[in-house]
């Protein structure tokens, strides 16, 4: 069956049926990815928090005006962060208990910032036991958000001071663990928007489900 190329990220079968095709990848610079990561993650947290507040069981989540206003003005980075949070919402809801069990192993009260980061990085590396892809990056962002939410619930008075810490942890981890390089090689953060229409396809959700299953396996093996 012959294919003809349409505009944007669509292809058309000879019978006129439209389907999605893989977007073309134009590599970005690692420096640019690193510079954008903070805004992407901030907006991921903002959108995830808004999603959680809209759930029926949101009574145990304190309302923090600063977090509600964490969203940046409209920008590509802000849009990417919010879009990723919308697609990560099902992971956040379905595997919240799994993430929270992992977070219970963190010493969130440590006064030694370097030790606290290493505790975070050790568990984050276990989350990313398989190869890097947009699914694992989504899980990493959600892991960071769940840490922030844990502090918000249990140590509300310390939340604002902790917020900048978890943002710095995620940014540092993405850069030091070569995740920023992978993102740059695969089109930069902007490429995430191109892949969003494809994320509802079976291959993406299969990858995401496998990543989530790997996280669950890590939790159970850690408890043994």
Q: What's the short version?
A:
The protein contains 10 helices and 3 strands; from the N terminus they run βββαααααααααα. It is mostly helical and 224 residues long.
What does this structure look like?
With 224 residues, this protein is mostly helical. The protein has helices at 30-53, 65-68, 76-94, 96-103, 113-127, 134-154, 159-176, 179-185, 190-195, 202-223; strands at 3-5, 10-13, 18-20. Helix 1 packs across helix 7 and helix 6 packs antiparallel against helix 7 (159-176). The chain has a three-stranded antiparallel beta sheet with strand order 1-2-3, with no helix packed on it. Residues 1-21 and 219-224 have low confidence and may be disordered. The chain is globular. Strand 2 (10-13) and strand 3 (18-20) form a beta hairpin. The protein starts with a strand and ends with a helix. It is 64% helix and 4% strand.
């Amino acid at each position: 069956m012959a294919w003809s190329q349409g505009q944007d990220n669509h292809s058309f079968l000879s019978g006129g049926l439209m389907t999605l095709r893989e977007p073309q990848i134009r590599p970005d610079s690692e420096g640019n990815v690193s510079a954008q990561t903070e805004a992407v993650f901030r907006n991921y947290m903002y959108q995830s928090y808004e999603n959680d507040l809209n759930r029926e069981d949101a009574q145990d989540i304190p309302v923090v005006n600063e977090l509600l206003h964490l969203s940046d003005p409209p920008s590509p980075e802000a849009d990417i962060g919010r879009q990723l949070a919308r697609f990560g919402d099902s992971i956040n809801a379905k595997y919240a208990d799994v993430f929270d069990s992992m977070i219970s192993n963190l010493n969130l009260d440590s006064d030694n910032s370097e030790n606290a980061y290493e505790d975070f990085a050790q568990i984050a590396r276990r989350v990313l036991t398989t190869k890097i892809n947009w699914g694992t990056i989504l899980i990493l962002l959600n892991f960071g958000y769940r840490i922030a939410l844990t502090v918000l619930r249990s140590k509300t008075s310390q939340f604002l001071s902790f917020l900048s810490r978890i943002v710095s942890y995620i940014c540092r981890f993405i850069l030091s663990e070569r995740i920023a390089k992978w993102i740059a090689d695969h089109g930069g953060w902007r490429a995430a928007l191109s892949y969003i229409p494809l994320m509802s396809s079976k291959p993406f959700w299969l990858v995401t489900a496998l990543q989530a299953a790997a996280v669950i396996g890590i939790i159970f093996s850690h408890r043994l």
